[in-house]
Amino acid sequence: MTSQTDGTAPAEEFMDKVFGDYVGANAIFMAAIGDRLGLFKDLAAAGPATSVELAERTRLAERYLREWLDGMAAAGYLTFDANGGRYAMPADHVPVLAEESGTMFMGAAFFDYSTKFGESFHALLEAFRSGEGVRQELYGQEAAEAIERFTAPWFEHQLVPVWLPLMPEVRTTLEVGARVCDVGCGQGRALIKLAQAFPHCELVGLDRYEPAIQAATENARQAGVGDRVRFEMHDGAAGLPGPFDVITTFDVLHDSADPAGLLRAIHDGLKPSGRYVCVDINCADRSQDNVGPMGTVLYGLSLAYCLPVSLARGGAGLGTCGLPEGRLRAMALEAGFAEVRRLPVDDPFNNVYELSL
Question: Which ranges carry the Methyltransferase domain (predicted)?
Fold first, then answer.
């Protein structure tokens, strides 16, 4: 046993922590394979399987599946029945691993985000040397899909039933029929949900990323709301085609190359009685307070995407933790907003704000 006085005990404790982090990284790597290939969903729907049975059900290579099943069992994601030789997913694991867009689903939040940035990794290393950014286009379609999957539970389970009841003026305006603009709309899920819930509204989504606009347009068509929702390739900071009754941004403002300019554009794009709904990161004003597991996740996301994408456009580079409540309030007042109200939402990841003129 190592002596507590020879100076090695703290180093060994930290070594244990790093090893634990590495264990987690390997579990996430293997889980990402299961997520992207639909293995968790298959086990949840079709039940326990041997590696041979799973290969037959999924038409994937048995040898790889055998290794993956053993790894997931070692990590505690699956269980193994030695008598039957079958691997199973415990019922309590199903909502976390297999229920897409569910309130507890973590596939997109962790598996996608942790494994979809390999192509941009070397570009990020070069950005550390040059101080420049990494273009959004370099991240590719899979990163866009990861963001879409990550944010989906907000719109499926929070936007209409939880957040809007806390904003009665906004909800009443939507019920009567409003002109709505979602800036940084991505693949359009927020506007589609609003269109389905409030059929008298006219809605437009803006995004700089052309593939997102194409996907959003198709998603709206498939949802049957394409006649009331349109999507345009447009940089919101350059001005909005207003005036609008309601403008929204969902996890967009801190990523913007020009967040101050975007806030001014949103201010100018609102009707006098309009409302701006801003959903952004729940973080502390001081960096030294963004510590522990959530702080680690937020700074990891920031380095992987938020910071380099903003800097690539010569932007402010706020980073994921760059827009805490205090900073948002100061920037909003400077942009001309009269009131910033933070909603009483208990969400470890998001703050929800209602801004008015």
Answer: 176-282
Q: Indicate the fold that domain 9-99 takes in CATH.
A: Arc Repressor Mutant, subunit A (1.10.10)
75, 123 contact by CB (below 8 A): no
What tokens were used for 55? Answer: 């290969």
Q: Nearest to residue 246, comparing CAs of 278, 282, 209?
A: 278
Q: Is 161 exposed, middle or buried (0-12, 13-18, 19+ CB in 10 A)?
A: exposed
pLDDT (0 to 100) of residue 1 = 40
pLDDT (tens digit per residue) in 88-110 = 999 999 999 999 988 899 876 67
Alpha-carbon gap, residue 262 to 10, rounded angstroms: 47
pLDDT tens by residue, 142-180: 788 888 888 999 999 999 999 999 999 999 999 999 999
CA nearest 33: which of 70, 88, 2, 81? 70
CATH architecture of residue range(s) 118-356: 3-Layer(aba) Sandwich (3.40)
